[in-house]
């Protein structure tokens, strides 16, 4: 039985990997062929497809100008691309569950095989100038595989459903803010598009990449509305109360950036406080005692902090050169602020009433 599970999970890991990798190879080969390359070597587009596959798992890259001189790092990767391997793995896992009833060994072997494949891809695709982080490739691929095999309807995760809904709504507000800013700064977006002139094939690919970067921008928009802001290079600060920006990369979607301070938008932080209040009130409604409520609050805060820290970390990073580092939010400030909103809600709805009850009982 174990040998059968081992074989089936290996086959499914290969299929899940190929489900995303083969289209990427086709796109890379097509772009390479239409670019007018004089080289008949197809190794470069295939290797580029492997790098795109790794980038879809948020794997970092070290870029070197020579054998000894480090040119930069690429860690600011499209967060939206992670959904592609996620759904490829989830579809394969659900198919395997029809044949294998033992879910624990099924998940363990599938995650292990997928992480091993990612590690091999990272090692095989290395060149003298571009080196994917091989150890992060296995870790990040394993995390994606674990998330893809989780039963989110399980009763164990029931206490996280309401906070998850609120965080999804918050992310939606970030998308709306980015969309409105793109409309307001449409002229800047048009100018940046004209500068690039990628052609019709390159334009389609460039558009897809920018769509996949929208979750990164939505996270930055939420941080901006809450007053923390974000960075777009060394020595920059973009927030409602402080604006310092040196240069903008020729990426059309970055035309949505604000052009100055907008102090009135800082009042959106009140929305974060209301979200914290809603989470704590939901915990109070579900729990029967103060002690039980504190335990639930710690569980929610711990998992929310871990998720927000991971999302904040993956949505930010470096864009090759030191001048474009850091880009995005400060992950520990972003996650810490959301937890602060939850604790404000706990103070208002739990701790202050508890203190008043204690004081009244003593009097």
What is the radius of gyration computed over CA atoms, rounded to a whole number of angstroms?
23 Å
Mean pLDDT: 87
Low-pLDDT stretches are none
Shape: flat
Task: Give the tally of β-strands.
Answer: 8
**Termini separation (Å)?**
68 Å
The domain count comes to: 2
Please, how many helices? Answer: 12
**Order of secondary-structure elements:** HHEEHHEHHHHHEEEHHEEH
Helix and strand layout, with pairings?
Layout: H1 2-34, H2 43-55, E1 61-64, E2 70-74, H3 83-97, H4 103-124, E3 130-132, H5 134-148, H6 161-184, H7 186-196, H8 199-212, H9 214-225, E4 231-232, E5 237-238, E6 243-244, H10 269-286, H11 290-314, E7 319-320, E8 327-328, H12 331-362
Helix pairs in contact: 1-2, 1-3, 1-4, 3-5, 4-5, 6-9, 10-11, 10-12, 11-12
Detailed description of the structure:
This protein is an alpha+beta fold. The protein has two domains: 2-150, no CATH class; 160-268, no CATH class. The chain has helices spanning 2-34, 43-55, 83-97, 103-124, 134-148, 161-184, 186-196, 199-212, 214-225, 269-286, 290-314, 331-362; strands at 61-64, 70-74, 130-132, 231-232, 237-238, 243-244, 319-320, 327-328. A four-stranded antiparallel β-sheet has the order 3-1-2-7, with no helix packed on it. The longest helix is centred in the first third of the chain and has 33 residues, at 2-34.
């Amino acid at each position: 039985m174990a040998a059968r599970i081992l074989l089936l999970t290996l086959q499914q890991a290969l299929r899940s990997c190929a489900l995303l990798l083969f289209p990427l190879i086709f796109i890379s080969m097509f772009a390479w062929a239409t670019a007018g390359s004089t080289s008949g070597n197809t190794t470069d587009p295939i290797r580029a497809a492997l790098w795109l596959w790794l980038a879809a798992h948020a794997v970092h890259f070290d870029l070197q100008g020579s054998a000894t001189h480090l040119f930069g790092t690429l860690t600011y990767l499209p967060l939206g691309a992670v959904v592609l391997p996620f759904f490829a793995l989830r579809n394969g896992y659900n198919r395997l569950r029809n044949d294998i009833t033992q879910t624990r060994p099924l998940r363990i072997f599938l995650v292990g095989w997928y992480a091993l494949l990612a590690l091999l891809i990272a090692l095989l695709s290395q060149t003298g100038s571009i080196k994917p982080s091989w150890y992060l490739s296995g870790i990040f691929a394993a995390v994606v595989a674990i998330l893809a095999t989780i039963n989110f309807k399980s009763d164990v995760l029931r206490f996280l459903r309401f906070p998850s809904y609120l965080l999804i709504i918050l992310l939606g507000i970030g998308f709306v803010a980015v969309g409105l800013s793109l409309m307001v700064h449409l002229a800047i977006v048009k100018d940046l598009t004209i500068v690039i002139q990628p052609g019709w094939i390159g334009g389609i690919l460039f558009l897809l990449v920018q769509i996949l970067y929208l979750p990164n921008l939505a996270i930055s928009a939420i941080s901006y509305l809450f007053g923390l802001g974000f960075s777009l290079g060394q020595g920059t600060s973009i927030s409602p109360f402080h604006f310092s920006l040196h240069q903008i990369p020729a990426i059309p979607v970055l035309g949505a950036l604000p052009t100055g301070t907008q102090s009135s938008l800082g009042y959106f932080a009140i929305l974060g406080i209301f979200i914290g209040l809603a989470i704590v009130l939901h915990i109070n409604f579900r729990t029967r005692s103060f002690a039980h409520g504190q335990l639930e609050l710690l569980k929610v805060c711990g998992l929310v902090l871990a998720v927000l820290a991971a999302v904040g970390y993956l949505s930010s990073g470096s864009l090759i050169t030191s001048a474009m580092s850091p880009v995005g939010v400060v992950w520990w400030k972003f996650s810490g602020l959301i937890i602060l909103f939850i604790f404000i809600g706990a103070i208002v709805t739990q701790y202050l009433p508890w203190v008043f009850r204690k004081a009244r009982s003593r009097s």
